[in-house]
Specification:
- It is a single chain.
- The protein is α+β, with helices and mostly antiparallel strands and about 100 residues long.
- The protein has a domain of about 60 residues: OB fold (Dihydrolipoamide Acetyltransferase, E2P).
- The N and C termini lie far apart (about 70 Å).
- The relative contact order is 0.18.
Length: about 100
């Protein structure tokens, strides 16, 4: 019985180490940013300086997109290189003018 408990405990420890925790995901660094003037906004796309970027329909960037309007200057964080297949908008920050 003790050997079975040890095996279960060892399996749980291995799984705990193999699965990244929330902190590991929270500290992920995104190196791909685009800044510029918004020229158009659709339900799940933003056009900045004439280039279109997709916003995932299930994610926090979609809520950000609802607050963006043409003419605003934004900084957009992307999940990959601009123009690469599968790259999506991770976050949108609208710059304020003073």
């Amino acid at each position: 019985m003790k050997q079975l408990n040890f095996k279960v405990l060892a399996a749980v420890a291995v799984l705990a180490l193999a699965i990244p925790g929330g902190d590991a995901l929270a500290t992920r660094v995104f190196d791909f940013t685009v800044s510029g003037t918004v020229t158009r906004v659709t339900s799940n796309q933003i056009v900045i300086n004439g280039k279109t970027y997709n916003v995932p329909v299930q994610g926090p960037a979609l809520r950000d997109l609802e607050q963006v309007h043409p003419g605003q200057v934004v900084d957009v964080i992307l999940s990959g290189p601009p123009g690469a297949a599968g790259t999506q908008v991770v976050a949108i920050h609208v710059r304020t003018t003073h």
